[in-house]
Amino acid sequence: MKTIIDIRELPIRIDELLALAAAGQEVILYDGVVARVRLVPMVQRKNRMPGLHLGAVSVSEDFDAPLPESFWLGEK
């Protein structure tokens, strides 16, 4: 569900609109007939776990070696 509000109402309804967005509702702010802003709740990300995929990515020995001239010239 979404709530549509004219931006002129924003100063008096900001607390209400933030509460709606925080509760998961989409709030769209219009300037006349033009949609200007969409408020949506922020997604809370899970904490990352270091070392979860050890060995999944490897870097080649020549990773930082200079690129050949053909690369810079756009040749194949």
Give the distance, in angstroms, between the N- and C-terminal Cα atoms: 52 Å
Which CATH architecture of the domain at 2-39 would you pick? 3-Layer(aba) Sandwich
Query: What's the CATH class of the domain at 2-39, please?
Result: Alpha Beta
Q: Helix proportion of residues, in percent?
A: 10-25%
By DSSP (H or I, 4+ residues per run), the number of helices equals: 2
Record field, number of beta strands: 3
Structural class: alpha+beta
Task: Walk me through this protein's architecture.
By secondary structure, the chain is α+β, with helices and mostly antiparallel strands. It has a domain of 38 residues: YefM-like fold (3-Layer(aba) Sandwich), CATH 3.40.1620. It is 24% helix and 22% strand. The chain is built from 2 helices and 3 strands. It has a 3-stranded mixed β-sheet, with helices on one face. Strand 1, helix 1 and strand 2 form a beta-alpha-beta unit. It is elongated.
